[in-house]
């Protein structure tokens, strides 16, 4: 379109393009450096038992403290990592860090603590995925039963037989499998009884609709009812208010995760959270 506007339009378009690609190149170079120096940081967000308020699990969420750009979130650099093939190295470092940190907490009086780790589609599609993951756990002597991997429905869209074999191999070792952002992907529900799935994570967009009482609430109700029927555990994501918490508890949602209990925090801030049975709400009402 810009081209059709004549010479000026074309130049404007082309300048914007080169600025963006320069920006992209510098971010890519910085990400390579950060990975070489192991500078990415893993933060942990509590997954809380809806009835007792105890912390049952922690989800590892990657952060990048960039020297000039400040603290970066996954949306700022994960797409780039996917496009440039750096995602493999990044995922490996996140899992290393998370197994190290959670391993200490597990051995330090929290034997049942669950570590939840997000996996990217390309990671799961890699032919050596299962082998690499199991080797990493072994290196850290991290108990498989304490790990839950989170995959999205987009991972399942492709080859159901192949993904089924991989997930079954992992489930056989005791690793748990969660479907993240449940209800927002493009897969059919068919996979739910064909794959070894343990947990459904209700996407935060549905949880948000509890306040406004729009049609999204019906989806929350349906997902939780279905999870009960299939004997799956339910984690509600993005819980921010008392109202959402009470609604979800009433429906029989097992676990909640969200700013109501707290955001993802650095490893150093986790130990105190594991020893209290009711986290103070981060906001009231
Ligand atoms: P996700 O796995 O669905 O994680 C939940 C996201 O919601 C996190 O964003 C979390 O900080 C945010 N969140 C938690 N509670 C609340 C709340 O109450 N309200 C709101 N508005 N947001 C809340 P974050 O850390 O920016 O991560 C975004 C996504 O990036 C994650 O979504 C996950 O898909 C991906 N991701 C994060 N870390 C990793 C990683 O190490 N590897 C891979 N492959 N993906 C990751
Ligand atoms: Mg997740
Ligand atoms: Mg999610
Ligand atoms: Mg998400």
From TrEMBL:
**EAL domain location:** 24-278
Write the protein's name.
cyclic-guanylate-specific phosphodiesterase
> Which part of the entire protein is covered?
441 to 725 of 725
């Amino acid at each position: 379109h810009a081209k059709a506007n004549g010479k000026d339009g074309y130049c404007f378009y082309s300048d914007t393009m080169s600025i963006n690609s320069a920006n992209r190149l510098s971010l890519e170079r910085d990400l390579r450096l950060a990975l070489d120096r192991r500078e990415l940081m893993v933060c942990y967000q509590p997954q809380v038992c809806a009835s007792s308020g105890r912390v049952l699990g922690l989800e590892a969420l990657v952060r990048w403290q960039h020297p000039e750009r400040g603290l970066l979130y996954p949306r700022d650099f994960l797409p780039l990592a996917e496009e440039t093939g750096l995602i493999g190295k990044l995922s490996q470092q996140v899992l290393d860090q998370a197994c190290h940190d959670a391993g200490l907490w597990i051995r330090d009086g929290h034997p049942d603590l669950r570590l939840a780790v997000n996996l990217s589609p390309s990671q799961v599609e890699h032919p050596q995925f299962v082998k690499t993951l199991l080797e990493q756990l072994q290196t850290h002597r991290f108990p498989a039963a304490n790990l839950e991997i989170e995959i999205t429905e987009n991972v399942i869209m492709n080859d159901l037989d192949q993904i089924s074999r991989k997930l079954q191999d992992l489930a056989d070792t005791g690793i748990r499998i969660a479907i993240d952002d449940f209800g927002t992907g493009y897969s059919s529900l068919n996979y739910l009884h064909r794959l070894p799935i343990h947990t459904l994570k209700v996407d935060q967009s549905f949880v948000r609709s509890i306040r406004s009482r729009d049609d999204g609430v019906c989806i929350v109700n349906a997902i939780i009812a279905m999870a009960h029927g299939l004997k799956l555990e339910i984690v509600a994501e993005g819980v921010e208010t008392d109202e959402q918490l009470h609604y979800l508890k009433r429906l029989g949602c097992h676990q909640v995760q969200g700013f109501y209990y707290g955001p993802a925090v650095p490893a150093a801030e986790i130990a105190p959270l594991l020893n209290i049975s009711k986290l103070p709400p981060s906001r009231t009402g």
